[in-house]
Amino acid sequence: MQQRYCIEVAYCGSKYHGSQSQINANTIQSELEKALQIFYKQTFSLIGASRTDKGVHALQNFYHVDTAININHKQVYNINSILPPDISIVNIYKTLPDFHARFDALNREYKYFIHQFKDPFLNDRSWYFPYKISSSILNDYASIILEAKDFTFFSKKGTMTQTSLCNIEKSLWNFDGKNIIYNVSANRFLRGMVRGLTATMLNCARKKMPVIDFENLIQAKNNQKADFSAPSNGLYLCAINYHHHSFQDL
Question: At the topology level of CATH, where does 107-238 sit?
Fold first, then answer.
């Protein structure tokens, strides 16, 4: 009898062309499916919770899969030994038959990491942005983001979606002296949205754009004026939340 499982994973995306399978491209999903096939001697077709782009990292992402194989927690160690060192299965859960990793997610949380002093050890983990930035004006912008509903302005051209409405639950900037982190969570995100939010706010802050002008910029809904230059290496999918009853421990 088929059982639906949900696989929780973490990965460094630097060497991969995103999380979702693509023809003739090395992805997180393809590596997971390959490792599962090697261990269980059968093919698997995973469904991902959140599609991360080339070079983007994840502290937590999920995939669901149906199989008649009885999977137990002890096997996580064995599958991880097959996976490359920059991908790790954190846990595997039993779920209800109608659980969907993508559509059942309540919200997703991202962080974008920026370092302001050149550091070779952060080269593929954070964006080097060596410009003086006002923390107060960035958080003023972040408050505007928190109040916004229509994010057409921050949606990349060619996005295939029926609506640009998003419910932003958290939007704030944190400074620790050497590093800057933008933290944002929402019920959904548009293609390129977090990188667009990050780069646009930073570059508007460099120009010392008044908050009212920033708000008017967003309300104009012209994504050609948005800035998507923030590189993928600074972006982390940090958490995906579900109802507490979605998972059962193996």
Answer: Alpha-Beta Plaits (3.30.70)
